[in-house]
Amino acid sequence: MTTRALVLAVIAAAVTLTSVAAASPEAAKQRVEITAKGFANSVVPLKFVLTPYGAGTLEPDSGTETAVVANKRIVTRDGQTAFVITWISTCKGKHGTFVMRVRIDHVDAGNGFHIGTGTWRFVRGTDAYAGITGGGRVANAWIEFGSGALSERREGFLTVP
Question: What gap in Å lies between CA 68 and CA 88, rounded to an integer?
Fold first, then answer.
């Protein structure tokens, strides 16, 4: 092998290794959806389902979710009242437990219906969720009369160590 061919082979190997090293943190990022349903303002835990999308190490999971309100305030924007609520949700599933911090702006949609949008972020986890970081956007809807049904959907990206 000539010196020139050897130099080119070494450069090609270095570029390949650099590309693989640069890609590995991105490969650990996985898009997820976490849905929850149950009853608003209830002492009964919600039911959650975690659905990973695309390739990655996270597996589908489900279980119970409990929430504790951390902060609640009322704001008025362009004449509309919104309740800005921050809470901590603890999800206990088959693959471990994880905690999320959720911040949402709720507005009264009339006739007993309420809607909200906001953000969520992963705080900590155990077992399969240990060391995970990330978060995304959240939307929910609930009704204050009759069943008091609540539905919530969180979508975002989680980075697995």
Answer: 5
* Global pTM exceeds 0.85: no
Alpha carbons 140 and 155: distance in angstroms, whole number = 12
Q: Cα separations (Å) of 33 from 81, 87, 120, 139, 159?
A: 29, 18, 12, 12, 14
Per-residue model confidence as pLDDT tens digits over 106-117: 999 999 999 999
- Res. 17: pLDDT tops 70: no
Residue 16: is its pLDDT beyond 60? no
SS3 126: coil
- Please answer whether residues 46 and 64 qualify as being in contact, where contact means their C-beta atoms are separated by less than 8 angstroms: yes
Q: Is 41 left (phi over 0), alpha (psi -120 to 50) or beta?
A: left
Alpha-carbon span 43 to 20, nearest angstrom: 49
* Beta strands, E only, the chain: 29-39, 46-53, 61-77, 80-93, 96-110, 113-125, 133-143, 149-159
Cβ–Cβ < 8 Å for 67, 42? no
Q: Cα 93 from chain centroid?
A: 15
Q: Measure Cα distances from 91 to 18, 87, 111, 136, 157 in Å.
A: 38, 13, 31, 16, 17
